[in-house]
Amino acid sequence: MTQKSSSISDFVSWQQRIKSAVDAGRSQIIVCGGTGCVALGSESVYDAFESEIKKQGLEKEVLLKGTGCHGFCEKGPVVVILPDQFFYPGVKPENVAEIFKETVIGRKAIEELLYVDPISSKKITYEYDIPFYAKQQRNIFHNNGRIDPVDVEDFIAHNGYNAFVKVLQEYSPQDVIDSVIKAGLRGRGGGGFPTGVKWDICRKASGQEKYLICNADEGDPGAFMDRSILEGTPHAIIEGMLISAFAIGACTGFIYVRAEYPLAVKNTRLALEQARDSGLLGDNILGTGFCFDIEIRQGAGAFVCGEETALIASIEGHRGMPRTRPPFPAVKGYADEPTNINNVETFANIPLIIENGHEWYSKIGTEKSKGTKVFALAGKVKNTGLVEVPMGTTLRAIVFGIGGGIENDGEFKAAQLGGPSGGCIPTQYLDTPLDYESVQEVGAIMGSGGLIVMDQNVCMVDIARYFLDFVQSESCGKCTPCRVGTRRMLDILESICGGTARMDDLAKLEELAVDVNRASLCGLGQTAPNPVLSTIKNFRDEYVEHIEKRICTAGVCLELLCYQITEKCVGCGACKKVCPVAAITGEKKEIHVLDTEKCTKCGQCYNVCKFEAVKR
Amino acid sequence: MNLIGENSDLNILDDILSAFTEITSNDLIPILQRIQNGYGYLPKDVVMEVSERTGIAASQIYGVATFYEQFHLKPRGKHLIRCCRGTACHVKGGPEIIDVIKKCLGLEAGETTEDMEFTFETVACLGACALAPLMVIDGNYYGMMTKQKVAEVLDSFRKPAEEIA
Question: Among partner residues B32, B87, B141, which is closest to A221 by beta-carbon distance?
């Protein structure tokens, strides 16, 4: 439901009407509709609640709402019952009738369905008591688990667009820029450049028209916060872009979003239509004379398009290849006009700064890194999902506090931060505060905040090879250092993983890494060696072991493995049957034996065994 | 859908292009995305027709079409299987999942089965890392995969086809 506001007072009275219609005491059933929960079946849970409400004839008394991502993706489908905030993870349609009767109507928790904390093994009833949430500071994600992403009225009821209206009423463009500079906000896309300064350059640059781009081409493997924000609160991004457009004087904006994020595209498109219908986008917005509209552009699957000049080339209909900077896009970007590019999370911070004031904002975080940062916590950790914490929170607090430690009681080995441009942070730096500078000191980068936890079963040489393989295939091919240099680096890493490398190859690898870093044209090539350099620096022994002893202790590099059959073997004979070189012997129902001399390490026995008896 | 790509139904293209006014190079990628949605891939004759009608050089269109992973110059199978090779999936056994899919279907990444039933692709990251390892079939997510589960899921797609045969 939308209503066109043609003046600020129209909007204010619309908001008052919406707010007065909200019944704070009404029971609400919140079903997470983020990609993670949908994948785990939240849609059928939603449908089950819908028919239960109908069956009971309680449509007026109980509100059912599908929201954006709650961040605790692994525990999906997540259901929260308001006003008490009862929290149920992993809900199935068959639980719905009981939840409805006991919790929605009876306001009592159902013991068996409650979340069990992996550290204390205690059952937890309320959402706010769950350590995963209790230890976070969810400023950006505050509304994500509460509002319907495609209902503009719900967003407005939660003070949505208030910051934009405040800007229209009280701020000059320079006031906005000054506030963002004083708040100390830095770009969340990776580089960490001060956002307000970028806006100021763009505002002061001369050009016929100015453009604004939201970079939602979240290509970093292991990062998914931008997807979640766009899925859950697309209006917050539109609001952030409106404020930015007002500040720099842009009339046209783009949201460049990955095609791999269909739900984000869908919700953003709906939100844009609603904003237009409400008079919040388009010509003469709220009767103030300010004009701004946004177009969605879907990426077509090229990692390098996250680089701003490549992204612009892509919007202009070319191959997504970067060009040299300067001139920076703030001076000469889309259509050769001044263009400001920020990423999704950066825009999400803007309404918070305006609404609460830069003084409030600059109190969060560290001296040089202000505000909160969203990390995508994944890998070998008990609680995976999206985590929002103040800048400067230690890695230990995230992995062991919020994340609950390593899964299967494994041992922490490293955390990879910053994707293909980042590095691996080893155990001795667990107490490093995560802010832009400290992270760089230990050889990683903040990047977009993908945080992959690794245990003893992860091989660091393989990880370096993995990232090099990634950047190699994503290299656009324009400049030689990146195109050829990363290929040669990958060759060396493959020879190390394959057991054919010599020690001088390691020295060559390091030398090449420095060259690729120095000579590449864009950020992709310049930072491509980071995963290699950081793993060599922190895990040199592992490289040496691969080269000199031909051993991969983590048991990952196939050519260096030694297969064994353990006492778990039940003698089914499956491995014997599948072995192409007849290296396995043994009688039915007896433990089989593998002849390592004959074994060609093809791994077929390992794949075929249903009893996990083949070890490598 | 015309699989030969020689005599494609140009009515689909008419509809696509009619949504654009004054087509410039800026519209090229959205146009190609719609063609791919409409035809399932980028048929050669359709691409040539786009060049003819918009004045965008065929070489530029070919350059763009081959640069981005999303575009395909060959027809694809009925079911699209996309497996994530992101970092979280990688450390949680993603490569083994990819191996199982390859073996089950007899395909390398980017290939289509001869009966045009399945196309297999790998994706840099599907952005659902909490569910690693993960694959998407025809837009539906299958998270926390194991070697056994993958085989079961693939079988569930295959059975009806075999029964018909």
Answer: B87
Q: Is B27 in contact with A419 (Cβ distance < 8 A)?
A: no
Confidence of residue B159 (pLDDT cuts 50, 70, 90): low
Cβ of A391: how many Cβ atoms within 10 Å?
22
B131 and A74 within 8 Å at the Cβ level: the answer is: yes
Is pLDDT of A216 > 90?
yes
Could you tell me if A603 and A564 are in contact, meaning their C-beta atoms sit under 8 angstroms apart?
Answer: no
Residue A470 distance to chain B (closest CA, Å): 8
Arithmetic mean of pLDDT over chain A: 94
Domain A160-361 has CATH 2.60.120.10: no
Closest-CA residue of B relative to A467 is: B87
A221–B63: do the CB atoms touch at under 8 Å? no
Closest to B141 measured CA to CA, from A301, A385, A91, A40: A40
Torsion angle of the four alpha carbons A32, A34, A39, A42, in this order, in degrees rounded to the nearest 10: 20
If phi > 0 it is left, if psi is from -120 to 50 it is alpha, else beta; for residue A345 that is alpha
Q: CA A440, A441, A445 angle in degrees (round to 5)? A: 15
Half-sphere exposure of A116 (CA within 13 A, CB side): 5
Contact B142 A39 (CB under 8 A): yes
| pLDDT of A2 strictly over 90 | no
Q: Interface pTM (ipTM) of the complex? A: 0.90
Interface test with A, best of B41, B70, B91 (most A CBs within 10 A): B91
CATH 3.30.70.20: does it fit domain A562-615? yes
Closest residue to A317, CB basis, from B26, B85, B125 = B26
pLDDT (tens digit per residue) in A477-509: 999 999 999 999 999 999 999 999 999 999 999
Per-residue tokens: A411: 């041992």
Please check the confidence at residue A1 and state whether its pLDDT lies above 70.
Answer: no
Half-sphere exposure (Cβ direction) of A291: Cα atoms closer than 13 Å: 6
Q: A314 to chain B: which residues are within 8 Å by CB?
A: 29
Q: What is the CATH code of the structural domain delimited by A372-458? A: 3.10.20.600
Kindly report the backbone phi and psi dihedral angles of residue A24, in degrees, each rounded to the nearest multiple of 5, phi listed first. Answer: -65, -25
Choose from A69, A132, A217, A224 for mutation: most chain B CBs within 10 A: A224
Instruction: Quote the percentage of chain A above a pLDDT of 90.
Output: 89
Assess if CATH 3.40.30.10 describes domain A8-134: yes
**DSSP label at residue B120:** E
Cα–Cα distance measured from residue A81 to residue A64, given in angstroms and rounded to the nearest whole number: 10
Q: How many residues does chain B have?
A: 165
Minimum-distance CB partner of A319 among B64, B69, B143: B64
> Could A317 and B24 be called an inter-chain contact, meaning their C-beta atoms sit closer than 8 Å?
yes
Other beta carbons within 10 angstroms of residue B70's beta carbon come to 19
Show the domains of chain B with their CATH numbers.
10-67 (no CATH), 79-164 (3.40.30.10)
Between CA A423 and CA A571 the distance in angstroms is 44
How far does the CA of residue B115 sit from the closest CA of chain A (Å)? 26
Relative to beta strand A211-216, strand A252-257 is parallel
- Distance, in Å, from the CA atom of A139 to the CA atom of A128, rounded to the nearest integer, reads 14
CB pairs under 8 A between A and B: 145
Determine the angle formed by the axes of helices A480-497 and A460-474, rounding to 10 degrees: 150
Closest residue to B27, CB basis, from A317, A380, A452: A317
Domain covering A461-549 in this structure, CATH number: 1.20.1440.230
Q: Which of A407-411, A438-442, A509-513 has the highest mean pLDDT?
A: A509-513
pLDDT digits (tens, 9 = 90+) for B64-99: 999 999 999 999 999 999 999 999 999 999 999 999
Q: Cite the DSSP H helix spans in chain B.
A: 10-18, 28-39, 44-54, 58-67, 87-91, 94-105, 147-164
